[in-house]
Each structure stands twice: as C-alpha cells, then as structure tokens.
Amino acid sequence: MTLQAVRPRDTTKLPQRIQAAGVYIAIAALLVFNLAFTPHFATVTNLRLQLVQVVPVAIVAVGMALVIATEGIDLSVGSTMALAAALIPLYIGYGVWPAIVVALAAGLAMGLASGWLVAFAGMQPIIATLGLLVAGRGLALVLADGRLVELFDPTLGALGNSAVLGVPVSVLIVIGVAVVAGVAMRRTAFGRRVLAIGGNRSAATLAGLPVKRTLVTVYAVSGLLAAVAGVLSTARQGASDPSFVGLLIELSAITAVVVGGTPLSGGRVRIVGTLMGALLMQLITATIIQHNLPDSTARMVQAAIIVAAVYVQRGRSAA
Amino acid sequence: MTAVANPPTERPGAARGRGSAPVALWARRGSAPVVLALVLVAGTAVFGGRFASALNLGNIALDSSYLLLIAIGMTFVILSGGIDLSVGSLLALSGVLTAYASRWGTPAAILVPLGVCALFGLANGVLVGRARIAPFIVTLAGLLFARGLAFAVSKEGNQVYIIPAELALTRVGQARFLGVGAPVWFALAVFAVALVVLNRSRFGQAVFAIGGSEEAAELMGLPVARVKTLVYVLSAVLTGLAGVLVAAQTQSGLPTIGEGRELEAIAAVVIGGTLLSGGAGSLSGTLAGVLLLKVIQNLINQVGTLTAYYQQVVSGAFLIVVVLVQSRLSRRGLR
C-alpha cells in the first residue's frame, strides 16, 4: 500500500521527537493510569498475564514489520497460525517435536508461497496474501474437520505455560525473536537490502540487489513466525482450535507495527517500537476490560487510536 | 475530456500494442465472463438438474445480490486507487440498526441504517481524501469501529432485535417477482444506475482519472478530495442497503454477520479484472466476478462429500490463479 501523494510537511524538532516517542509516552500514561485507578493491576500475576496474552500478536507483528518494511503486507498470518495449529494434533502421535516441526514447516511453506507470488509472479502483496488467507483458513478447517482438538501433552503444556525465573517461556521466545530480527535489520546486509527494497524497489533492482530472493525470504520469515505464534497459542490453550486461532490477528499485527512507528510506505522499520505497539494495544484492551467496559468499546477505542497514530505519523512517513 | 473517457484501454503499453494487445485486454477485462460461462456449463454437465434447477439458480442469484451491492461500491473505491475494508462490519452494523429501528416503522428502518452508513462513509472518505491517510488503515479502523458499534447497539450480542413480519420492509424484502427474490431486483437496479454513473458521468470519469494518476487528475483541476470522499460514501451506503436487505430477509439483525465479506468483495472485483492499483476496470467484470465466486461455492456444496470448508480453499486458490493468469496473459500481450 502506498501513501499516495502525501506532501512532506515541515515539522519542527520537538513535535518530531514526541511523534517518535509517542508509543512509549502512551504506554507510560496507561501504566500510570492503571497503577492509580485499576485495582489488582500491579500484581505479578496480572502483569505476567498481560505479557503472555500479547505473545501471539507480538511474534506475528515482528514478521509483519519486516514485510511492511519492504512496502508489502501479509494478510495470511492468521490463517498460517490456524494451519500450524491444525497440524499439531495430526502429527502429535509421532511426538511433540516432530509435530511442531511439521507445523513450522507449513508456516514456512505458506510464507514461501506468498513470497513467490509477490516476488516472482509479480502479484500485489495484498492480493496474494488475501488469497492465502482465505485458502489457508479453509485448509486448516478441512484438515481438522472444523473441530477443536484438546491436547494433553506435558511438553506442549510446558511450552505454553511454564516460566523460567518467573518469565514465561513464550515471552522469552518473543524477546529472542525480536533480538534476532533487530540485529538482522540493523547489522546485516540482509537488513539493509530489506530497507532498500522498501525505500525504492526499482533503485534496489538497478543497484543489483537480489530483490526477489530477499522478498521471498522476508515473507518466509513472516510465515514461519506466524506458525510459531500458532504453536504457542495452541500450547497455551492446550487445544488446537483452527476456527478461531489467529482470527483477525493480521489486523492487530498491522496496527502494532504502524502504532510502533514503522511507516506503511516501507523503507524503515522499528522492531522494538512494534513490540511496544503490540503491548500498547494489549494494555488498552486490558484497561477497558478491567474497568468493566464492554468489548465493543475496546474495539472502537482501538479504531480511534489506529487513525490517530497514523495521522500523527503522516509527516514522517512521507519523508 | 476524451482522454479521460477511456482510460481503461489507454494503458501506455496497450496503446502501442503490436497486434497482441487485444489478448492482453481480453485477459484482464473479459476473461471472467468466459470463465463463468465455462463453469456454468461444466456445473450443468456434472450435476444436471440439481445445479441448473430454477430453485438452485434462484438461490445463487439471491446469495449473489448482497455481495454484488457491496462489490459495486468496492469497484468505485478500487478504481479510485483505494480500498474499503470496513464493508463487512458495516453490513452487520446496518443490519443491527435496521432491526433496532424497525420498531419505529419501515421508513426509520431504512433511513437510520443508511444515514449512519453514509456518515461512516463520509468519515472514511474525509480521512482518506482530505487528511490523506492510507485507505487501508482508515478502513481497517472503520472495520473495528463498525463492528464495535454493532455489538454495542445489540448489547454485546446478547440482544437480537427482531423485525416484525407484518412490517412493509419485511414484506417487500421477502417478496418475489418472476420467481426471483426482491434483493436480486434491487441489486440489478443499482447495478444499472452504477453502470451509467461510472461510464457516463463526470463523477465516474473522475474516479477513473484519479485512480489512473492522482497527480494528473489534480493538475487537470478535478476535485480529487471530493471525489475520493464520495467514493467511500457510495461504498458505505450500498453496503448499508445490502445490510437492510439481509435484515429484511432474516427478520433480524445479528452483529456477527459479514465477517470476511470485505475480502470476498475485493476478490470479486479483482477477479472481474479491475486493477487493484486503480484506474482500470469495469462493473460488468465485477458482476461476473461475483457470480463466479458464488457459482463455485454452490458447486462445491453440490458435491456431497466435500465440507463447506472446501469453499474457502477453492475460493482462495481461485483468486490467486485468476490474478496470476490475468497478469501473465496481459504481460505476454504487451511484449
């Protein structure tokens, strides 16, 4: 998606700094508000719960950030999660790790498929991944016959619900993923290629960069991370639920990326900002729910925040 | 204004084509009706009377009519270079508001949802057209907001409003004419008007021009922001109309309906040969795209051994294959 004909605006330094730190300021404000007004907010149990709940969106959002940095979009992530979740009960008879490997391989395959369609077949990312969104969810439901399957595997349960030194394993995985992604984007040639493609694809091609290969890799990473999120969700619930796992998560992930300061027009990426964006949306939902406001209000507030965040960013994304 | 009058055929490459350009043009613009015809013949050949019966075809038409209304608006939006993700949620909101307002009689049950949808479209349009926020993001927020509002109106889904059977709305909505349900006639009437508006009015030509090149349109002095705003209003109002018709058909308004409808509508438009980048496409293609999706879904239902989930697999794969073939053929034609 391109921001069409957005005029670069003359922004002074201070507003720019506020824009850049917007997501952090918002998180800090929400934390202060909750500490002051929400009963039982500052308990270890609650804080840990908030972190665990944000895991799937955070992991998917990291992959989405890379895709968006190439000026692409990946709508298929939710269906990839469902596909991964649907495969686990089918293969868990061979052991938990083989089942997880199969699930991750399916995610990788979905990612490779969208990457191929975008890079080599020249399809628009939104169409290619839309097709895979519809087909992927259908495939997951066909595989599972539309049913929820409960899983009683201790290893899988540990993956979803245990903690190391008080930090849930799934949260550690998020941190690991973010560190690897952050280093890859800042310190490697791959990261620079990704940003170059997002900044100006034809220039990247003319400069002799392996544009197509890089694009395929980016979508493959997004698919793989979505599968990881699918496995972790399944592990945490102790059940494979292909009808609902990852439903609409593509929207939450895109929101997290955008709120975190990555422009949809590509060429830039902020991994930590993305994690914070995911955390912010989670905190908003939690705040609303803990104050007994209905879920519908949460959605409307989220909508307003998405628009506000992007509106504030307009000046920067055009630059 | 003749240069603006036919932008779909005036892609730079196609104009210079060396004889093979018609192939390219056909691949993009005309393939959906041909594929539709083939699928219809194949369906009749395999399933015979079960598929080709008046009852079944009538059901396909009814099922298609709601999607057609949404897809007509979506065609305008996509032609202008935008996208509208909020339509699925708006369909639910409109249905809920129809049922809610039906206590005050038929006029309210129609005007309240259409008015709210128009405001919604206006908000989308102003944010896209004036504030210049990416359509994808604006309508994504609209998707969340409209669904939230639909749930808020129906008390978090705990309250289902029922439309009285004796209301004029119910009677008209469930009426049949020549054996075909009223929504089909509404959709066809809207389609006819939309054809004229898109191809014969200044507004329609401006939509093409803006989608082709916004900068050029601006330089020509076209009211870009206003046209872009109107396009989203149109999409929202047509979706609202579909919501009213669905509510009249089911005599209730459910906040859960319409999830994924935006994707279905986009798929129909794209299968119909409209370029997602805007500026080129047609409403007749959209009609063929809608019918194609619905006929294929129906055919999958006819195969008793396949669950409904296969519909999704086939629809998704079909979208990819059609777009792939279109782009391959049109590229080969241009070479």
From TrEMBL, chain A:
Its main location: membrane. It comes from the Bacteria. Keywords: Cell membrane, Membrane, Transmembrane, Transmembrane helix. It is found in: Cell membrane. The chain crosses the membrane at residues 21-41, 47-68, 75-94, 100-119, 126-144, 164-185, 214-232, 244-264, 271-290. InterPro entries: ABC_transp_permease. It holds the Pfam family BPD_transp_2. It is a multi-pass membrane protein. This is Sugar ABC transporter permease. It comes from Phytohabitans aurantiacus.
From TrEMBL, chain B:
It is a multi-pass membrane protein. Its main location: membrane. CDD domains: TM_PBP1_transp_AraH_like. The chain crosses the membrane at residues 30-48, 60-79, 108-127, 133-154, 175-198, 229-248, 269-296, 308-325. It is found in: Cell membrane. Keywords: Cell membrane, Membrane, Transmembrane, Transmembrane helix. This is Sugar ABC transporter permease. The lineage of its organism: Bacteria, Bacillati, Actinomycetota, Actinomycetes, Micromonosporales. The gene is rbsC_1.
